[in-house]
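Subject: Sanity check before I submit

Could someone independently write out the structure tokens for this chain? I want to compare against mine line by line before I put it in a report. The sequence has 515 residues.
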Amino acid sequence: MTRPAVDDELTRLGRHAERYRLFKPVVAKLRTFVGSRPRLEARLRPPALRLAVSLRPSFRIFYIATRQATRSVAGWAAWPGNVWAFGRAWFSFNRLGVGGRPVGRQIVMLVIADIRFDPRVEREARVLAAGGFQVHVIWTDPQWNGSSCTAVDWEERITFEALPMSAARFSEQFPGFLGRDMLKAAQAHEPFAFHAHDLNTALIALTAARQSGAHVVCDFHEWYSENVTWSPLRGVYRSHSRARRAAYRWLERLCFQHASDLVTVCQSIADEMSQTLGDGSRKVAVIRNIPDRTLVASRPYPSLKQQFGIPSDRFTLLWQGGIGPSRMIEPVIEALAHAPQCTFVIRGPEIETYGPGYARLAARVGASDRLILAPAVPSKDVVSAARGADAGIWTLPNLCKNFTYALPNKIFEYLSSGLPVLVAHYPEARRLVDTHRVGLIFDPYDPRSIAAAINRLAGDMALRNQCAANTSTALANMDAAVEWEKLAALYDCLPRTPESSAPEVDESAGRPVCL
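---
Independent answer below. Compare away.
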């Protein structure tokens, strides 16, 4: 092995060891001691490497297994207290019911995510603030250290309340939606409405709203009951267990029964949710993830090729957004073996975690010099940072309806950057590409199919220019301003009650009774 490879193996084993509090100070002291003695380090390095290579897989499995067991035990241990906290709040005698006394102009958003990299949360907060609402975002901050948190500044009418990541642990423990810490934070407010971003905050919003009388809007970024579960030990996604799927389906039906309004990201999910979770009479509003092209980036960006020193005549394909096992990026890298004129740029959060695996795969197919790995940029910068590529690509595995019905941020962000798109042949993405003629489709499991799409776009300049020109027409037809204003209009249409009076409430439906 080369010296960088040796360092890579030792560093990885050290990182696994440092995840345990007991081992972390020992590993740190050992590194300091050996690092200050070059001769000792030279003697210890070969046996240390052999030890690292032999121990790392076992240590990884041991770490994952103990972590999963700890989470499971902690989840079940917290279950009685969580159930009691939510049950007491849900059935309290002084409850007003969802929508029983909606007053004021404040909207409290609940988010289990890093909002710096969640463009949907930011866009919705901005459009509601522009519509005259005061938006307060309660979120879990991965950089919260007990005394300070990440500084986020979207605009004057948007405020933030950061919680430590420990407040998000409930989302990793069955059933995944009993967040007591976030419930306490939500109960401190009496807003006009709670906006639940995804199903994992929906019960929190409904419970807090039943006490305060606020409205609840459930925003389904994902269709949880039709999603998949990650198996850390096997390293694959698998279908939900019966218990998990039943729990998600129960909460989704509860949202349909009690929430003031429901929102999701595309028409296919909206239609099927309406039929599956209700009787088809209650509709789900659709607000697609179309970026605001008037949003000013935090800094100017040169063209993508200039950012990474790519020759101007080299066809450059961009993946920008979430990465990892569920994203199906590996077949795209394998396709580089059949598309020699293509350079592939992957830009996204956690690139330091998943990037080495992508780099090893590129080396195996002989394309290591045509793969570029880059860290994520802030959500407001993604459109500007993507300009200058030749095309953007999106794909997902065919594992569940939540994936096959997806119509994600990144497709619209590519279009806003003026890029033709290459997309997996799923219904919503295919409909957009075929309707507006802005790109090509491919089989997400076949590297040769992906390569054929890349080669066709790379070799046919007229097609590429036509697709790029059609992006402006497509975005004009889809008008981002009109799309996001639908959310402000939805809130403006919710019933409002003067503070001096509160209507009777139909508890079975969770809505005010108009007398």
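---
OP: Matches mine. For the report I'm noting this point. The first strand starts at residue 106 and ends at 111.
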